[in-house]
Specification:
Elements (H helix, E strand, L loop, with lengths): L3 H36 L3 H10 L4 E4 L4 E3 H7 L2 E2 L1 H4 L1 E8 L1 H8 L6 H13 L6 H13 L28 H28 L7 E5 L4 E7 L4 H9 L4 E5 L3 H19 L12 H4 L21 E3 L5 E5 L4 H9 L1 H4 L10 E4 L3 E4 L5 E10 L9 E2 L3 E8 L5 E7 L1 H17 L3 E5 L2 E4 L12 E5 L4 H13 L6 E9 L1 H30 L1 H24 L2 E2 L1 H30 L4 H8 L2 H25 L3 H34 L25 H21 L6 H4 L1 E7 L6 H11 L5 E5 L1 E9 L8 H15 L9 H5 L8 E8 L1 H30 L2 H25 L11 H29 L7 H11 L1 H21 L5 H29 L2 H15 L1
Parallel strand pairs: 3-20
Antiparallel strand pairs: 1-2, 4-6, 4-19, 5-6, 7-13, 7-16, 8-9, 9-12, 10-12, 11-12, 14-15, 15-18, 16-17, 19-24, 21-23, 21-24, 22-23
Helix pairs in contact: 1-2, 1-3, 1-17, 5-8, 6-7, 8-15, 16-17, 16-18, 16-31, 17-18, 17-21, 18-19, 18-20, 18-21, 18-31, 20-21, 20-27, 20-29, 22-28, 24-25, 27-28, 27-29, 28-29, 28-32, 29-30, 29-32, 31-32
Keywords: Cell membrane, Membrane, Protein transport, Translocation, Transmembrane, Transmembrane helix, Transport
Subunit structure: Forms a complex with SecF. Part of the essential Sec protein translocation apparatus which comprises SecA, SecYEG and auxiliary proteins SecDF. Other proteins may also be involved.
Subcellular location: Cell membrane
């Protein structure tokens, strides 16, 4: 081997750099363990401890030192499935941005196009492109985007703005830029909020030009609080309010009108004697005020007063909204109140007649106007901080700029004179509606008070300081993982990695003897390099990423196996050890096969990386890095030891007493079996297609949208019972399966998955808790059931949500990923082998493998004791199977090509059969190590990746079969008779 010294130098240098990079991970881990021990299980105390030592030196190398913050930035970060925490994808509403850019245009074509874009947006199509497409179809040239009533308005005119003479294509470029600027603004606002939240190592990134923003908060535990923090648009407004006596007559009239349509539907609580019911005191018929006779008033559960019209249960707010928005009800409003806005307050808890805590929300009536604009906007607020009001209760104080101070003085002066109230409204929720008792308030200082705790005021002040989002931000995808589940994942992954490493290493020693030891050393160096690169790139390690590392161990020895098998052939042919090693490392020996096999693997890994997201991208990252490091260590590191042995002992045989006779003089008529294998595979494919058509697949929420909860109980529960209970509250949408142990369930529902607000998520969580809490011992609270904390063993340990639009994007990406991988490999093989028949044989084998695996999943998902959902992890498994199947097929094809161009005797079929037989040792060895490693992962890897591993396990077995019994026969059957005759004639001439 040339330049051996240079290779040794770079290998040692690379090893030292890898150890240096990994040292930060070890130091950071030690400091975090110290923090956990100090905090004693208190997450807030742990976070404060880590924050306090952020700038302290914790790592001294003598010539330089590092603070904890610097060490943390350089460590291998753990993904949510290992660390625990919250991962959300926020969709910035491009629809709202477009409305804002058009100054809320009333143009019917514009508004219909917005609605059509929402309804018809295709998978992976951006909303803005869908809008432009819809606008072109709706306008048909009758109106332009540059119309003064759409985008050529006053706010968009001027330099770099929209001119009414512009074409639609010119306007589109400007609007796209403006939308990008708004998304960038939202990105900045969210980053400010997160930076103040106190989570260590948060990650926030824009996802292309889709308007989506990914936020990862490792270690975060308070689910509802974080979602509220992220989704709050911080649209702060100050509105004048009506008092109850001003709108009471309308409410009475509305209640009377509703009796005509709702009286038979109403089944609610008895009306409470309050200020509204007092308005009914002159009603003669006492039956009129009995339970069930007052559709609106029967829903009032506590007295109002002043600006508060009454208190209602949260579950009744949608019904009341529906009543008040009805055209036949709104017409009852007096002319001066026709623009009234009915808005709900912040949820609070009161005592009912039985002294039990009841959560209620207050109803307010705001003095609206034709333009639906508040008396004052929150844009004038320059600073906000959490504080305490005069009663010592948590509040938020605000400071306004000069313009705001003047407007605030006028507004408070008017309220003082009229003895009215000012509602402080944030994101369409009234937080407080104080009156003004001491005259106009000068100086621009104001305060938000209400039913707050200290945490809420801190978050509210944070949101107001960071500024408002330019548009609504909906959580379209989310995942919550508890820290206890993350630790289990680490333990499972570590166990499977160690056991897999030991088994692969042991097999290499048993089968190849001393040469096996050399490959094991190369494997150890490979793992060092792999982790070193992951650390230097700042990569995030996930559970599928660990699976990728374990899989790398299985494939790392593949190149060594190919080289060793070739060296054994050369030794049996009478070559010296030096000649055998030199030949096996040549292009004519093993290098062409290794190159072709790994290029196909890289292509499928690259497709995974491009189309995957989150954990799948982590899997692809480790797989791609593993391929590169495996090639380097197998080809160069192992070669160093082989050459060293050659110069010292010269005793390598690449066999042991156990393996020396295995596959020697192995002869099997593979092509002779093709009728039977074709028949068997045809039956399997037909059965698979029938099952896929009738039985379908268990599509996970990644593909269809929905909410998934992994819930642990303190004792075993009956799935049928839980399913019936949840179906009752989730409108029939509830799927319940045992997930691992029989005290753990996986619950899937589509209930309110299209509603992205915090209220919808909170409602689902509360319904889940209220429905299931009787299965637990007494004392389990909502917070303990929903939120994560160290040592959590019951309640929600993992939760995820995928909105329908995201599910469509994921499904589209999956299709393109599979088709793209197959197309890329087909083209590469056609270029590499210069005959389309090789590509066709390989693609036929891959298609066979994919249908086979899909068929198994379709046939078995209903009764298998583990999850067999079709999700992103499954697509990763399918692409891995494609890569492996191609890898195995290429090795066989390389030998077929070599033998067809060589001096092997026999007819065409005999030559092909001999070429396959000579690859059997390599095929079985590689497949066996892969299967054993996957079995270990299947057993020890944990429930969450069991279905993913099973798909790869089936795929590897089927891929080995197809490379021998499908790919090669298809190749032989599609080669023309003329080519076969030519090959046979050439071999006859060689023999002569």
């Amino acid at each position: 081997m040339q330049n051996k010294g240079l290779i040794k130098f770079f290998a040692i240098l690379f090893a030292l750099v890898s150890i240096y990079q990994l040292s930060f991970t070890f130091v950071a881990s030690k400091v975090k363990n110290d923090a956990k021990a100090f905090a004693g299980g208190n997450p807030d105390k742990e976070a404060k401890y880590l924050d306090s030592i952020g700038k302290e030196k914790v790592f001294d190398l003598g010539f330089t030192d590092f603070t904890f913050n610097e060490v943390s930035d350089k460590q291998i970060n753990k993904g949510l499935d290992l660390e625990g925490g919250i991962n959300v994808t926020l969709q910035i509403s491009v629809k709202d941005i477009l409305k804002g850019l058009s100054n809320n245009s009333k143009n019917p074509v514009f508004n219909k196009s917005l609605a059509d874009a929402t309804a018809n947006q295709r998978g992976n199509q951006t909303y803005i492109d869908a809008f432009f497409e819809a606008f072109e179809a709706n306008s048909k040239g009758s109106v332009k985007l540059a119309s003064p009533e759409i985008f050529a308005n006053r706010s968009l005119q001027g330099e770099d703005g929209v001119d009414y003479q512009m074409t639609d294509s010119q306007v589109q470029k400007i609007i796209k830029r403006k939308v990008d600027e708004s998304v960038e603004s939202a990105f900045g606002v969210l980053r400010k909020r997160i930076d103040k939240f106190g989570v260590t190592q948060p990650n926030i990134q824009k996802l292309g030009e889709s308007g989506k923003i990914l936020v990862e908060l490792p270690g975060a535990k308070d689910v509802d609080r974080i979602k509220k923090l992220l989704q709050s648009t911080a649209q702060l407004e100050f509105w004048e309010t009506y008092k109850i006596d001003e709108v009471g007559n309308f409410l009475v009239a509305a209640n009377e009108a509703l009796k005509k349509t709702e009286i038979n539907k109403v089944q609610t609580n008895t009306v409470v004697k309050d200020s509204l019911s007092a308005l009914l005191s002159d009603v003669k018929d006492t039956a009129a005020v009995q339970k069930g006779n007052n559709p609106l008033f029967d829903k009032i559960v506590a007295q109002g007063g002043g600006p508060v019209l009454g208190m209602f249960l949260p579950k009744d707010t949608a019904t009341v909204n529906g009543y008040l928005k009805r055209a036949d009800i709104k017409i009852l409003l007096p002319a001066e109140q026709r623009y009234v806005k009915f808005v709900w307050g912040k949820a609070t808890t009161i005592k009912d007649a039985k002294d039990k805590d009841v959560e209620v929300v207050e109803l307010y009536a705001l003095k609206g106007n034709r333009d639906n604009v508040a008396a004052m906007s929150g844009g004038v607020v320059t600073d906000a901080k959490d504080s305490f009001d005069q009663s010592g209760k948590p509040s938020v104080s605000m400071q306004m700029n000069g313009q705001g101070a003047k407007a605030w003085e006028e507004l408070t002066g008017k309220a003082y004179t009229q003895k009215s109230n000012i509602a402080i409204v944030l994101d369409n929720i009234v937080y407080s509606a104080p009156g003004v008792s001491s005259g106009p308030i000068a100086g621009g200082r104001s305060e938000i008070s209400g039913a707050f705790d200290v945490t809420e005021t801190k978050d509210l002040a944070n949101v107001l300081r960071a500024g408002k989002l330019p548009a609504a931000a909906d959580i379209v995808q989310s995942e919550v993982v508890g820290p206890s589940l993350g630790q289990e994942a680490i333990d499972n992954g570590t166990n499977s990695a160690i056991v897999g490493l030991l088994i692969v290493s042991l097999w290499m020693m048993v089968y190849y003897g001393k040469a096996g030891w050399y490959s094991n050393i190369a494997l150890a160096v490979n793992l060092l390099f792999l982790f070193g690169i992951l650390a230097s790139l700042g990569a995030v390690l996930t559970l599928p990423g660990i699976a990728g590392i374990v899989l790398t161990m299985g494939t790392a020895v593949d190149a060594n196996i190919i080289i060793y098998e070739r060296a054994k052939e050369e030794l049996r042919a009478g070559r010296t050890l030096e000649e055998a090693i030199k030949t096996s490392y040549s292009w004519r020996g093993a290098m062409s096969s290794i190159t072709d096999a790994n290029v196909t693997h890289v292509l499928t890994g690259a497709v995974l990386f491009i189309f995957g997201s989150g954990p799948i991208k982590g899997f692809a990252t480790t797989l791609l890095i593993g391929i590169a490091t495996s090639l380097f260590t197998s080809i160069f590191i192992a070669r160093i030891f082989l050459d060293r042995n050659l110069k010292t002992k010269n005793d390598l045989t690449f066999v042991t007493n156990f393996s020396k006779k295995i596959f020697n003089n192995f002869h099997f008529n593979f092509l002779g079996m093709k009728k039977w294998t074709y028949l068997f595979s045809s039956i399997v494919i037909v059965v698979s297609i029938i099952s896929l058509s009738t039985n379908g697949l268990d599509e996970g929420v990644d593909f269809v949208g929905g909410r998934t909860f992994q819930i642990r109980f303190d004792k075993p529960v009956e799935t049928d019972v839980v399913k019936a209970e949840l179906a009752n509250v989730f409108d029939g949408s509830a799927e319940v399966k045992v997930f691992g142990d029989n005290n753990q369930l996986k619950i899937t529902t589509k209930y309110k998955v299209k509603e992205h607000g915090v209220e919808a998520d909170g409602e689902v969580n509360k319904l889940l808790f209220e429905t299931l809490k009787h299965h637990y011992a007494a004392g389990l609270t909502y917070d303990k059931f929903v939120n994560a904390y160290d040592g959590k063993t019951i309640g929600i340990v993992q939760a995820s949500k995928v909105g329908p639009s995201v599910a469509q994007d994921i499904k589209t990406n999956a299709y393109w990923a599979v088709l793209g991988a197959m197309l890329l490999v087909f083209l590469y093989l056609m270029i590499s082998f210069r005959k389309w028949q090789y590509s066709l044989g390989a693609i036929a084998a891959v298609a066979h493998d994919v249908i086979f695996v899909l068929g198994i999943y379709s046939l078995c998902y209903k009764f298998m004791p583990f999850g067999m959902e079709i999700d992103q992890h499954f697509i990763a498994a399918i692409l891995t199977v494609i890569g492996y199947s191609m890898n195995d097929t290429v090795i066989v094809f390389d030998r077929v090509r070599e033998f067809l161009a060589g001096k092997t005797k026999g007819n065409f079929a005999d030559i092909v059969n001999q070429s396959i037989n000579t690859t059997m040792s390599r095929t079985i060895n590689t497949s066996l190590t892969m299967i054993v490693v996957l079995l270990i992962m299947f057993i020890f890897g944990g429930e969450s990746i069991r279905g993913f591993i099973f798909a790869m396990l089936v795929g590897i077995v089927v891929g080995t079969y197809s490379s021998l019994f499908i790919a090669t026969p298809v190749l032989v059957d599609t080669i023309s008779k003329e080519d076969k005759n030519r090959v046979e004639k050439e071999h006859e001439e060689v023999i002569l």
